[in-house]
Design goal:
transmembrane; mainly alpha; membrane; two-stranded antiparallel sheet; transmembrane helix; 2 domains; 13 helices; ABC transporter transmembrane region fold
Length: 383
Amino acid sequence: MFRIVNRLIQWTGKYKRRIYIGFIYAFIHSIFTAIPIMLAAKGLSAVLDDFNGVKPLEGRDIWIMLGAMILAVFGRYLFSYLRAITQESVGYEATADERIRLGDILKRVSLGFFSKNNMGELSAAATTDLSFMEMFAMNMVNTVVNGYITVIVLILFLAFYSPLAGGIALAGVLLSALFLHLLEARSHQNAPIHQKAQDDMAESSIEYLRGMQVVKAFKQEGVSIAGIRKAYNDSKKINIKIEVEYMPFNCLHLFSLKAASIAIVAVAAMLTYNGSMELPTMLMLDMFSFMIFGSVEAMNNAAHVLEVIDATLDKLDGIEHADIIDKDGKDISLQNTDIAFRDVTFSYDKVPVLRNISFSIPQGSTTAIVGPSGSGKTTICNL
């Protein structure tokens, strides 16, 4: 997962500095997340001391606790807000730049590029795939990186009061990471198939819509819709397959975290029973056990979604590295807008379409290009 997260951060280019700043805000946010639990334990300890006659609980103590709790809640809100406004919009801004970059590349590639590449794949890359990226890319980065930042901070707080409980929490996270890795490996196998299913749906939908008039004219609805039904059925099958293979590893991932939570409660109770731990500390560990793994539990979806994003980045890289016709070209000022062809020969890959074509169209004139089907009329207009 971290390889894909790093790749995603590098893909954002000039915006990655904001992502790193967001990680700092997430770290401070996790500290403020742990503070209320420690304050609750401190308050409970003060109540027990008052009950046992050790130290009376004064109104001043209550107001200090209340102020500290309000400060902790405000700190969580503030740094969560700062992280959100710093990181969340990066996905939308980076994909907007990517769309412009793709458009600039596609308008400068040879016409043979479109015949060699699947039109549905190109259409999906500029629409569906980039929409998926802008909605989920930064969300997944936040889930993985900030999730582990939060759990590491909470484990350190936990280990300060009980190294044994901290060790159990760490073991639970490591075991969870193992099952997430297995889930990611399975998703890595399914991601290219899922990507192809998405491309096939886009291609078949475009083909169906473009040929709608011809289909209606010759009453071939049944034949024409067979392709689109097959594409959508293939997409349904791969999505069901992904869910079926996702469930076992997801259950093991969640089970390892829940088992670690139960073990923390059991260890805290045992240490308190043996007199090695005070009751307020035990209750604090119990509260920690219920929320310490919350940020890690949400990573089950990230393991799969990141693999889909990785496949999307592979596709975008393929388009961005396409050969450009005027790679070393530059803008020139035109004296007129005459069009002239001189001995032009053109082919799509290895299939020749035009041979030694020469003509001149003066500025402001009208020209009719006439010829049989397949003679290259559209090619001349595109050139």
